[in-house]
TrEMBL record:
This is Diguanylate cyclase (GGDEF) domain-containing protein. The chain holds residues 400 to 687 of 692 of the full protein. It comes from Rhizobium lusitanum. One of its GO terms (cellular component) is membrane. Residues 24-274 form the EAL domain. It comes from the Bacteria.
Amino acid sequence: RAKADIGRAVCFYESRMDEAARARHTLAQDLHRAVELDQLELHYQVQTSVISGEICGYEVLARWNHPEYGQVPPSEFIPIAEESGTILMIGEWVLRTACRQAASWDRPNKIAVNLSPVQFAHADLAKLIHSILLETGLSPARLELEITESTIIADKSRTLHVLRQIRTLGVTIAIDDFGTGYSSLETLRSFPFDKIKLDRSFMSEVERSIQAKAIVRAVLALGKSLEIPVLAEGVETNHQLEILRTEGCDEAQGFFLGRPKPVGQIFQPDHAADDGLGSSFSGRIPPV
Ligand code: C2E
Ligand code: MG
Ligand code: MG
Ligand code: MG
């Protein structure tokens, strides 16, 4: 009897596994068609100077509007896209669309586009970026690319080679999620990054934990001595921003400064972009 129960349990477990695998497979297939079906969208999140509050740039964040599941977060679909290779097509679409949109703005702000390690492994990335810049007319100085430590670790010599090629175009490179990988310091030694993006896990702790604050200080000191500006990710409160100001951080990004927004809304203040509640701030005359 016990044996039969175990048998049933295993069966149940396996069918659940199948279900998860099937769901992933379906998502991967849907994702493959997402670009041509126009289901992908770019959101932009502002990056500001800590001292002046001036806008430095906008990070480009991909969104997938799935017809059945609604908005699938990138933390779910990017890994699936990387596994299935679709990230090459999606990554190219993100780059081209972001460059085209930014080129049409009447302000000269930079855009920061995330790159996957897979994009470094396969395509002739520098050549692709070069042709997209020519095609869209975006000045290379307005494009920043964000990579993570995992990209460097995947194939160090090749990645460094491609990064140097990209730099030659006049495009800048930021190291993303800094401080969470296995070899953050080694990463900084291997390439002269243009920006360090301190992972948001440090911000969420900085008010309560002296350890987190010590690490924030240390990274800021490192940035100063290497002459690399530091941007703090995940700033959600004014108090966190004040700490960053006191500690001499260069730039900040986070919900407190602005949420990621669709391209049509990025130049509007946050409250006006919200639902009806914010309309009283927008200066529009309310309907009678
Ligand atoms: P990331 O590059 O580190 O992007 C920052 C993430 O933090 C975004 O999540 C953003 O919405 C979120 N965030 C910003 N401010 C705050 C805050 O104050 N508090 C909290 N809790 N979160 C904040 P998102 O948009 O879900 O993207 C997640 C990750 O997916 C990104 O992390 C990036 O690694 C990846 N990703 C997004 N778009 C792309 C893309 O086009 N290509 C590639 N390869 N990866 C992408
Ligand atoms: Mg990023
Ligand atoms: Mg990040
Ligand atoms: Mg991240």
